[in-house]
Design brief:
With about 425 residues, this protein is an alpha/beta fold. The protein has helices at about 5-15, 15-25, 40-50, 125-145, 165-170, 225-245, 305-320, 345-360, 375-380, 405-425; strands at about 55-60, 75-80, 85-95, 115, 115-120, 150-155, 185, 195-200, 200-210, 260-270, 290-300, 325-335, 340, 365-370, 385-390, 405. The protein has 10 helices and 16 strands. It has a 6-stranded mixed sheet with strand order 1-2-6-3-7-15. A 4-stranded antiparallel sheet has the order 10-11-9-12, covered by helices on one side. It is elongated and about 85 Å long.
Length: about 425
């Protein structure tokens, strides 16, 4: 039996351990926002990885977006050196999960197993991938103790809210310097036979329209900011949305609908603030003098960020020409440029061969409709040899009754382990 066959058997033998690890991770409710239990999950991972010889470093993202004494942004970076010089392979997983939402029939933090699936918030996005990478590395170390280079595993904060308290901070501190790390695999749930090369770009902005407050019984004495925002939305419907639907990309974005430019109206609020749940009175009768809209614009590698912004300003100027009292502000909240690793990159080719060997079919190459932490490894860390590959079905992310298949975790762990054999032996 050669080393690869031994490794496949070793990972298969750890199936129950992989399942239990995924369950344990789900049972730590790392909700973001606000950022619960980040230190707890880092401590849990460190206890596990130190038993396999990893040196663990806790890194708090002091001063990063979201970091506070009440909700510190803790990250864990674990590294295990080989017996001789060589490349470093880094598996990066975010530990945070989004809100639970309505519609669950399972305990969101129970880690229940049923019909070969582990259920829970974060099961596929992406605690199943984190568990698979850990078991892959541990099995590889057991079978190939004399490997070259180094293996790193990180559990990082805040990917669901931009990653600034996680991978972005680590990249700024040099953890993804190409002299230190050569290959990065992010086990996001893109399906076990897919290699994700990158993602579309994103521009988040807040548009605020202004008016003049007045008594609600005499709206003609004021100026309604909500009506102004309604005119903005009408202009978007009439001109911007049709224009975005015509823009197409050569990037292999999935699903099919994301191969065009998109705009989501993330939130809208006008008038007085909503009252607390225990308030039983009525709102006061006022003409709203402010209305705010948050937009989420996803753009293609063929588009320029200046063009993306100019389209929004053109919409607002068109409204202004028709409404004499229309005034507004636009505030940028976040910008991320598109990222796409070349198919010829070493980590891409290595994982593609591993998928072929393990699953007997060619890997599919895709691009994510949304961003993930590759953006920071690419732009801040200046490391382009990075992909997303992991178990789980992308469409289940953030949904009720989220789950990850146990067979998928095992198969993905085998692909990760097979990749370590090629890169480090």
């Amino acid at each position: 039996m050669d080393v690869t066959e031994k490794l496949m058997a070793e990972i298969e033998a750890r199936r129950d351990d992989l399942t239990a690890l995924c369950q344990d991770l789900i049972r730590i409710p790392t909700l973001n926002p606000p950022g619960d239990n980040y230190r707890e999950i880092c401590d849990f991972l460190a206890r596990r990885l130190e038993k396999s010889g990893f040196a663990c470093e806790f890194v708090r993202a002091h001063g990063a977006k979201g970091d506070s004494d009440k909700y510190p942004r803790w990250n864990l970076v674990a590294r295990r050196e080989g017996t001789r010089s060589g490349d470093c392979v880094h598996f990066n997983s975010h530990t945070d999960v989004v809100e639970v939402g309505r519609g669950w029939t399972k305990d969101p933090f129970g880690g229940e197993v049923e019909d070969g699936k582990v259920y829970g918030r974060g099961a596929c996005d992406m605690k199943g991938g984190l568990a698979a990478s850990i078991v892959a590395a541990e099995a590889f170390i057991a079978v190939c103790p004399e490997y070259a280079g180094a293996i790193e595993i990180s559990g990082t904060a805040d990917e669901e809210s931009g990653g600034f308290g996680g991978v972005a901070y680590l990249a700024e501190q040099g953890f993804f310097d190409p002299k230190r790390v050569q290959h990065v695999i992010i086990p996001e749930p893109l399906n076990k036979d897919r290699i994700c090369l990158g993602h579309r770009g994103v521009w988040w902005a807040e548009i605020e329209t202004y008016g003049e407050i007045a008594h609600g019984s005499m709206p003609f004495l004021g100026d309604c900011a909500v009506r102004h925002m309604g005119a903005v939305m009408t202009e978007m419907e009439d001109t911007l949305f049709p224009a975005l639907a015509m823009k197409r990309t050569d990037m292999p974005v999935v699903p099919e609908g994301a191969k065009q430019s998109t705009l989501n109206i993330n939130s809208i609020h006008g008038g007085e603030n909503e009252q607390a749940a225990d308030y039983t009175g009525l709102p006061s009768p006022c003409v709203p003098d402010s209305c705010r809209m948050v937009i989420d614009r996803r753009f293609l590698i063929e588009e320029d960020i200046d063009e993306v912004q100019a389209e929004i300003h053109a919409i607002l100027q068109a409204v202004k020409e028709r409404r004499a009292t229309f005034t507004y502000d636009v505030r940028e909240l976040q910008r991320v440029l598109p990222s796409m690793t070349e198919k010829s990159a070493p980590v891409v080719q290595t994982v593609a061969r591993a998928i072929s060997d393990v699953m007997g079919r060619d890997a599919q190459y895709v691009v994510s409709p949304g961003t993930y932490d590759q953006k920071h490894i690419d732009r801040i860390g200046r490391l382009q040899n990075c992909i997303a590959y992991g178990p789980g079905i992308l469409d289940l992310a953030h949904k009720p009754d989220e789950y990850v298949g146990i067979d998928d975790m095992v198969d993905s762990a085998k692909v990760m382990g097979r990749s370590l054999v090629e890169l480090l032996t």
